[in-house]
Amino acid sequence: MKCRKCGGTAALELRRHNAAFCSPHFIEFFRKQVTEAIHRHRMFAPDETIMVAVSGGKDSLALWDVLIEEGYRTAGLYLDLGIFDYSKESREKCEAFATSRGQTLHVERVAEAVGAPIPTVQQVTRRPTCSACGLSKRYLMNRAALQHGYVVVATGHNLDDEAATLFGSVMHWQTDALTRQSPALASTHPKLVRRVKPLYRLSELETAAYAFLRGIDYIVEECPFAKGATSIAHKQVLDRLEETSPGSKHNFLFGFLERARPAFERTEDVELRECTSCGQVTTGAVCAFCKLADLVKRRTAS
Ligand code: Q46
Ligand code: ZN
Ligand code: ZN
Predict the structure, then answer these.
(1) Can you spell out the DSSP letters for 177-230?
(2) Ligand 1: residues whose CB is within 6 Å?
(3) Where does the pLDDT of residue 230 fall: very low under 50, low under 70, confident under 90, or very high at 90 and above?
(4) Beta strand 184-185 with 194-196: parallel, antiparallel or unpaired?
(5) Do residues 207 and 253 lie in contact, with contact meaning Cβ atoms separated by under 8 Å?
C-alpha cells in the first residue's frame, strides 16, 4: 500500500475513502477534515476561545490537540462523574495533557452539583445510568461555559458516535432528537452556549490512529457503564454494515444531514424560560437537572 499523497509506504488504509496515507499525510488529512468541518458549519469566530469538553479518551484529546495545533485559543473542561477508578484515571490524563500543552483545564465535580457521584445517582433514582449522566453532562457543560465566559463548547463526538445516535433516533422516530442532530447547534437563548462537534467527519478508527501517531496519552478503557448502553448495540450493527460496505456510516449520516434533516426543522418555536431554581434555560418551570438533584438530595437524606 502506498500513500496517496507522496507514494511512500502507507501507515493506514482508509477503505471508505479508497485511500491510504503515510503517517505525516494522515495527520494532514485528519486536520483538514477538522478544519473543513469548522469552516463548513462556521463553528468558531476568530476571536472566540473554545471550551473543549474532554473525557480523557482518544476523541476529545485528539480534538483538543488539533485545535491547539491549528492555532485556536482553547481551554479544557473535565467533568468528574465520580465513576470509581475510571474517573480518577481519566482526570489524570486530562490534567497531564493540559499541563504538557500549557492549557487551562476547568474541572467540575458532578457529585458537588447533583449531590452524589453518578453510580449513587443511579442507585437512588433507579434511572438508567447514562440518562442521568448525559443530562448532568449537558447541564454542567453549559453552566461551566457561561460561568467562565465561553460562548462555544466543542465535544469529541466522531462519525461513529453521530451515526449511532442517528440510528437510535430513527429506530424510535424521535423527531425532536433528529431536529437536534447536527454538527453545530446554534445558541437559541442568551444563556445557552453553542455546541459543536468538529470531529463528525472522522471515524473512531481515524481518531484512534491520530491520537496514537501524535503520542497522546489517553485512557483506553471505556466507562464501566458503557457496556450495556444501547448506543453500543447500535454501533455494532453499523460496524457490520461498514465491514461489508465501506462508507455506509458516512452515507447514512451525511445523507441525513444534507438531504433529510431540513424536513425535521422545527416549525413551531418552543418557549424557553429560566429555571426558577437555578436560572438555567428550560422549557418548564424547574429544569430537569434541578429535579434530579432534588430527588438525589431527598433519597440520600433518608
Ligand atoms: S460516561 Fe456517563 Fe457515558 Fe459512562 S455513564 Fe454512560 S453516559 S457511558 S459517554
Ligand atoms: Zn505520504
Ligand atoms: Zn435548574
Answers:
(1) HHHH-SSEE---STTS-EEE-TTTTS-HHHHHHHHHHTT-----SPPTTSTT-H
(2) 81, 118, 129-130, 133-134, 223, 225-226, 229
(3) confident
(4) antiparallel
(5) no
Residue 114: nearest ligand to its CA? 3
Q: What is the pLDDT of residues 265-299, one digit of tens each?
A: 875 567 899 999 999 999 999 999 999 999 999 99
pLDDT in tens, 86-108: 999 999 999 999 999 999 999 99
Ligand nearest to the CA of 21: 2
Ligand 1 pocket mutation pick from 86, 122, 123, 130 by most atoms within 8 angstroms of CB: 130
**282 alpha carbon – ligand 2 mean position (Å):** 50
> Which residue's CA is minimally distant from atom 8 of ligand 1?
226
Mean pLDDT value across residues 13-22 = 94
| pTM summary value | 0.96
Give CA–CA dist 60/48, Å, rounded: 19
The residue whose C-alpha atom lies closest to atom 6 belonging to ligand 1 is 130
**Of all atoms in ligand 1, which is nearest to the CA of residue 129?**
5
Q: Which ligand is nearest to the CA of 133?
A: 1
User: Across the chain, what does the average pLDDT equal?
Assistant: 95
Sign of CA dihedral 226, 227, 231, 232: positive
Backbone angles phi, psi at 203, to 5 degrees: -80, 165
Cell of residue 160, nine digits = 461513529
Q: What is the radius of gyration, based on Cα positions, of the chain? A: 20
Alpha carbon distance 226, 133 (integer Å): 11
